[in-house]
UniProtKB/TrEMBL annotation:
Family label: Belongs to the amidase family.
Superkingdom of this protein's organism: Bacteria
Protein name, UniProt field: Aspartyl/glutamyl-tRNA(Asn/Gln) amidotransferase subunit A
GO molecular function: transferase activity
Transmembrane segments: none
Protein keywords: Transferase
Amidase domain location: 10-433
InterPro entries per record: Amidase, Amidase_CS, Amidase_dom, AS_sf
Natural source organism: Lutibacter maritimus
Pfam families: Amidase
Organism placement in taxonomy: Bacteria, Pseudomonadati, Bacteroidota, Flavobacteriia, Flavobacteriales
């Protein structure tokens, strides 16, 4: 713990929003004392981990990498984090990310752009960029990210590690700052399938504090050793389009060949075009974030900027403290929800989401697993992607569909800074981990 705290303190990748050094050293001393007394310790006891700065951990800063919450301290602890603490894991750091999860590069933050673990000229990916880089550089053993439309899977791919977005609801969202509540998921980033399995087991479970949480069964160590996947599918239109970089396409087709050589049947599937997926996701995500962030007006939380009356105080607090990207989303979200637009845009988005879910139900009658690249491109240079927000949204083309479908999906590193995405039907994380092991 001490060693890793030192590394985090000195790191130049901008992964740290705040260090939890006092708490971490205190918890580590307790584990030491247990070991000295010869007491048995649990699987996660003494294991250092990181937390994306959108989770509550009582008494510590929870900034969402935003000016608005720069000085905010958590009043309580998120369920997922509490479960890790109860298992003896040691939180080291609140990690840099895109403000409120808004972004795909970890540049939309007041703490400075997170630098990629493999090449510091490149973006780390986002929004859970600090979490991915901390794991990749061994500053933490695992980190807890948040994934609304790809924020765990995409930076995992960009930094050559594993990242799991579980089935929606498998892990309680209580204490995770809401971005888009209908697709927000809590999940782990780590360097091995085994670590992903262990951390997922600890955090999973129904929680009375989150009405959308679900029950699930534990995934045992043995359960993921023997592959049972017989048929794999992939979306033809993800691979046959102009947006995919030739290298990403070649890597993916090579994975498909490998799967075939291992005796698995491969089927081509049809899916919605990328522009429909991205526009549906951003319509709903912006609508939900406009609603969720309306509470941040400087009265109950955050960095209030006083003005002549209450209305002006709200306006100045929000316009001075939110980033350009967050404001773009609040304005966009309020527009799609407003009279004259909501039927045409928001309700249409909801209808397409249902069609996407129906499409997946049909797919999983034919195949056990769906494979896809995580992103159409490899990570861009820091600074480049900020110039074109629309291009940044389009880079989420391969992750957002699975989010809208609320499916479990895992990024498997390929050593190429892109990653392979393995998706299964709802609640079938076990099958994903099995298949990931089988592909190793
Ligand atoms: N890049 C996507 C967005 O900006 C996903 C972010 C996330 O999953 N938090 O909405």
């Amino acid at each position: 713990v001490k060693e890793k705290l030192e590394l985090l303190k000195k790191n130049t990748h901008n992964t740290v929003n705040s260090l939890l050094d006092t708490l971490a050293l205190d918890l580590a001393a307790k584990v030491d004392a247990k070991i000295t007394k010869g007491e048995e310790i649990g699987l996660l006891e003494g294991i250092p981990f990181g937390i994306k700065d959108v989770y509550m951990l009582q008494g510590t800063f929870a900034t969402a990498s935003s000016n608005l919450l720069k000085n905010y301290k958590s009043a309580y602890t998120a369920t997922a984090i509490q479960k890790l603490l109860d298992a003896g894991a040691i939180p080291l750091v609140k990690e840099n990310c895109d403000s409120f999860g808004h972004g795909s590069s970890s540049e939309n933050t007041i703490f400075g752009a997170v630098k990629n673990a493999v090449n510091t000229d490149l973006v780390a990916g986002g929004s859970s960029g600090g979490s991915a880089v901390n794991v990749a550089l061994d500053y933490t053993v695992f980190s807890i990210g948040g994934d609304t439309g790809g924020s765990i899977r995409q930076p995992a791919g960009y930094n050559n590690i594993y990242g799991l977005k579980p089935t929606y609801g498998r892990i309680s969202r209580y204490g995770l700052m809401a971005y888009a509540s209908s697709t927000d998921c809590v999940g782990p980033l780590a360097k091995s399938i085994e670590d992903i399995r262990i951390v997922l087991n600890v955090m999973s479970g129904k929680d009375a504090k989150d009405q959308t949480s679900i029950t699930s069964s534990e995934i045992t160590e043995d359960a993921i050793l023997k592959n049972t996947v017989k048929t794999v599918g992939y979306f033809k239109n993800f691979i046959e389009n102009d947006a995919i970089a030739p290298k990403v396409k070649a890597d993916f087709l090579q994975s498909i060949e490998k799967v075939k050589l291992k005796g698995i049947k491969v089927k081509e599937l049809d899916f919605f075009p990328s522009d429909i997926l991205v526009s549906t996701y951003y319509t709903l995500a912006m609508a939900e974030t406009a609603s969720n962030l309306s509470r941040l007006d400087g009265t109950n939380y955050g960095n209030r900027i006083e003005d002549k009356n209450l209305k002006e105080t709200y306006a100045v607090t929000r316009s001075e403290n939110f980033s350009e990207e967050t404001k773009r989303r609040i304005v966009g979200g309020n527009q799609v929800l407003s009279q004259g637009f909501s039927d045409e845009i928001y309700l249409k988005g909801l209808a397409i989401r249902d069609q996407i879910a129906a499409n997946f139900t049909k797919d999983f009658e034919e195949v056990d697993i769906i494979l896809s690249p995580v992103t159409p491109m490899s990570p861009p240079k820091i600074g480049d992607s900020l110039k074109d927000p629309l291009a940044m949204y389009l880079s989420d083309a391969y992750t957002v569909g699975f989010s809208l479908g609320q499916l479990p999906t895992l990024t498997v590193p390929q050593g190429t800074q892109t990653g392979l995405q393995i998706t299964a039907a709802k609640n079938n994380e076990e099958l994903i981990l099995k298949f990931a092991n089988f592909l190793k």
